[in-house]
């Protein structure tokens, strides 16, 4: 859609976005998924995508990237075989002693051997099961529940401590995710509470972990649950307008391009996190990579400080007085008016 709307060919768009025309053709025709989102972002910017379209494009790319190596198996492609019920030999007026357990063989179903109980025994088993259930329920009245460390029972209204929420991670869609999102919003994180653990939630979880001093794994583990419930960190940060203003103050040599580069990289979001396919991540306003952070004697926590991030980006710019550290965004800005 973006390509058609631009009215330009693959070669021209690819040149402006910093990718070959043939690769761009594969991506647009659905034959391949770029391993680096920045390629997608640069292409979209060249095509004049709006901020809302860019966010939707990132969401779709993240879903495609997650499913890249997952084989697609549908019910039509791999239907479960219909296993007929083995016939029971007919008997005339069977007595109690004639009723024998019916064995379904593993060869027929692929499951372990199990016997079908006679009707009388089934009734007795049902009564026994009901008695056991009552006893168990009664027992739970006085049996002590394990706390958050054991993770076997929720404590009060802390849903994440329940067994169902053992580890909450990318791709889940349930009430555990909704609870995580609710707690992130309580911590002043900006995200939708929709029960869907997608790229937006992944970014906010990772950012919260960094701010709270928890190992930034991108999944909600026990340490992260404790930090969320304890409100260990606030995700309050600068507005995009304040970020843009500070960029112009620091990048006095080329303020318009600097703001455009930062907007391309992070939407001017100081807590933006972008995971890379090699396991590294980019951080903050100017999406400074792990490698560059080491060069700058920085950390992800420092990178979330917008003032430090902007000044660090200016140090990188000062090496050659250009934006060579942001090749995709720089390529996307070529031939487009500055804003």
Helices, strands, pairings?
Elements: H1 2-6, H2 10-17, H3 21-28, H4 37-46, H5 51-66, E1 102-104, H6 106-109, E2 114-116, H7 119-142, H8 175-186, H9 199-212, H10 222-229, H11 240-250, H12 255-266, E3 273-275, E4 281-283, E5 288-289, H13 290-295, H14 300-303, H15 306-320, H16 327-333
Antiparallel strand pairs: 1-2, 3-4, 4-5
Helix pairs in contact: 2-3, 2-4, 4-5, 4-16, 11-12, 11-15
Strands, count: 5
CATH topology of one domain: Lysozyme
Unreliable residue stretches: 69-122, 134-153
Q: What's the helix-strand series?
A: HHHHHEHEHHHHHHEEEHHHH
| Percent strand | under 5%
CATH class of one domain: Mainly Alpha
Which bin fits the share of residues in helices?
Answer: 40-55%
Strand pairing plus helix content: what structural class? mainly alpha
Distance between the termini: 24 Å
Average pLDDT figure: 78
Helical segment count: 16
**Main beta sheet, described?**
3 strands, antiparallel
CATH architecture of one domain: Orthogonal Bundle
Q: Overall 3D geometry?
A: globular
Query: Whole-number radius of gyration?
Result: 29 Å
* Biggest sheet, spatial arrangement of strands: 3-4-5
């Amino acid at each position: 859609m973006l390509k058609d709307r631009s009215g330009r060919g693959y070669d021209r768009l690819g040149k402006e976005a910093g990718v070959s025309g043939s690769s761009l053709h594969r991506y647009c025709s659905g034959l391949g998924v770029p391993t680096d989102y920045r390629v997608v972002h640069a292409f979209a910017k060249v095509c004049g995508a709006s901020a809302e379209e860019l966010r939707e494009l990132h969401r779709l790319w993240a879903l495609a990237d997650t499913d890249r190596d997952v084989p697609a198996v549908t019910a039509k492609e791999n239907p479960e075989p219909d296993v007929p019920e083995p016939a029971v030999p007919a008997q005339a007026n069977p007595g109690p002693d004639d009723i024998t357990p019916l064995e379904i063989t593993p060869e027929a179903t692929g499951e372990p051997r199990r016997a079908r109980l006679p009707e009388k025994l089934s009734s007795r088993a049902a009564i026994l099961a009901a008695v056991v259930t009552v006893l168990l329920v009664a027992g739970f009245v006085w049996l002590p529940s394990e706390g958050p460390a054991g993770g076997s029972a929720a404590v009060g209204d802390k849903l994440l401590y329940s067994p169902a929420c053992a580890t909450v991670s990318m791709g889940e869609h349930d009430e555990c995710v909704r609870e995580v999102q609710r707690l992130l919003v309580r911590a002043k994180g900006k995200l939708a509470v929709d029960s869907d653990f997608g790229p937006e939630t992944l970014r906010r979880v990772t950012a919260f972990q960094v701010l709270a001093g928890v190992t930034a794994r991108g999944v909600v583990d026990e340490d992260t649950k404790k930090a969320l419930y304890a409100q260990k960190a606030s995700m309050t940060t600068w507005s995009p307008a304040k970020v843009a203003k500070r960029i112009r103050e620091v990048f006095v040599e080329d303020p318009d391009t600097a703001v455009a580069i930062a907007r391309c990289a992070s939407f001017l979001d100081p807590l933006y996190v972008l995971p890379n396919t090699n396991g590294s991540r980019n951080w903050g306003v100017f999406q400074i990579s792990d490698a560059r952070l080491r060069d700058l004697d920085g950390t992800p926590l420092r990178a979330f400080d917008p003032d430090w991030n902007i000044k660090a980006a200016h140090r990188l710019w000062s090496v050659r007085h250009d934006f060579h550290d942001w090749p995709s965004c720089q390529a996307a800005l070529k031939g487009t008016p500055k804003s």
